[in-house]
Amino acid sequence: MKTTEFVIKLKKLRPDAQILRGFDFDEDFINEYRNSFDILKLKESNDTLDPILSLIREYNVSNVDIGLVRFNNENEVLENNRYIYIGNFDADYLAIDKYTNEIIVLSCEDPDHVLVKCSKDSFSFLSALYEVARINNELFLGNISSNDKNIKELAESIAKVSGGDEYLDFYLLILGYEGE
């Protein structure tokens, strides 16, 4: 998925405030949750073909929080010979592997240790992350079942979008699968 498509599709997932009020959430939570679907354009930049780097450079991603995935702002993106650090998954680092173009999670305690692979590339990761946002929103609103069998099937379908079974562990984790 390209950057613009991700931004547009994510915004369409934004739930109506009235629906959230029906769950008896306070207004601060409702605003914060709804804002996590809004990514505001900051500037034009044609200096990269990578959709995640374009997202970070061209948009304000500070409100985006999808299943514990958060992107860095442009001034927070760091890199070394092997990795471009693009954000966080919980406390650990979300990175692009420069050798393979895979999106991976690196341990915050040992930044050379890959905890889990997320996607074959940035295009696939944005597609998969959109699916995570869509599914998490549906789970949150009670529109789909959160039983382990259903979560596992959903994670398997997202893993295919991200590049295959080698990425399944990340999507089981991000969707909160608690089975074996």
Report a brief summary of the structure.
This protein has 180 residues and is of the alpha+beta class. It has helices spanning 3-12, 17-21, 27-35, 51-58, 122-140, 148-162, 168-174; strands spanning 40-41, 59-60, 69-71, 78-79, 83-89, 92-97, 103-106, 114-119.
Characterise the protein shown here.
The protein has 180 residues and is α+β, with helices and mostly antiparallel strands. The protein has one domain (3-174). The protein has helices at 3-12, 17-21, 27-35, 51-58, 122-140, 148-162, 168-174; strands at 40-41, 59-60, 69-71, 78-79, 83-89, 92-97, 103-106, 114-119. The strands form two sheets. Strands 3, 4, 5, 6, 7 and 8 form a six-stranded antiparallel sheet that branches. Helix 1 packs parallel to helix 5 (122-140), helix 5 runs antiparallel to helix 6 and helix 6 (148-162) packs across helix 7. The longest helix is centred in the C-terminal third of the chain and has 19 residues, at 122-140. The radius of gyration is 16 Å and the shape is globular.
Query: What is the number of beta strands?
Result: 8
Average pLDDT for all residues: 93
The helix/strand class is alpha+beta
- Described by the principal axes of the CA atoms, the overall outline is globular
Q: How can the largest sheet be summarized?
A: 6 strands, antiparallel
Separate helix tally: 7
Helix content: 40-55%
Low-confidence stretches: none
* Residue share in β-strands: 15-25%
In total, the number of domains comes to 1
Q: What is the N-to-C order of secondary-structure elements (H for helix, E for strand)?
A: HHHEHEEEEEEEHHH
Gap between N and C termini, in Å? Answer: 31 Å
Query: What Rg do the Cα atoms give?
Result: 16 Å
